[in-house]
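Replying to the earlier thread about multi-chain prediction with a worked example.

Input:
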Amino acid sequence: SQTIHQWPATLVQPVGSPLSLECTVEGTSNPNLYWYRQAAGRGLQLLFYSVGIGQISSEVPQNLSASRPQDRQFILSSKKLLLSDSGFYLCAWSAYGQGKNQPQHFGDGTRLSIL
Amino acid sequence: AQSVAQPEDQVNVAEGNPLTVKCTYSVSGNPYLFWYVQYPNRGLQFLLKYITGDNLVKGSYGFEAEFNKSQTSFHLKKPSALVSDSALYFCAVRDFGSGNTGKLIFGQGTTLQVKP
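Result:
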């Protein structure tokens, strides 16, 4: 069966520090991968998605970047964090090329607090 | 433009009563619809989906959803609510302009509060 791992679960960082959040998927190949941010336990904002190694699409201009160095690894980064980067970050995957009826599957998220 | 609306920020029901969480959508073409549940400090869990066929879809934890094409709705239902059903619920629709990316458009979420 497929599993998705995100770490760390919680992170407290000072303003201006760098960031690296990692997400890995097991039990599937060539998944679509996604990074979301959720503010205040409400709506989801899609930040980045990837359909293959090295292929990153950004949905909104921001202080963050994403990379996909391996098929099942998705990394969210920042060189200098802003207060507005605080939030709950969720990674998700879906099956690629198997039609449009496949759900996304989510990791348990990283709670990021910027001080 | 494609969109999903969850008109209620919060739904309150008593344990044992039936529950309904509402969702309406606007898409060009046939919709692919999904429901997710999120517990505090956890990721979203997939509950059920509608692709085609029977308008009543059954999912996890006793939940079901009714697809209504004429009303462009996909309401989540459960015959008898449990206190443990209290959570944040999201409706989503496949973004048809997204090719093979699998992108979803999510509603803003509805908090379900089940009181004993």
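Chain B has a mean pLDDT of 94.

Feel free to reuse this layout for your own posts.
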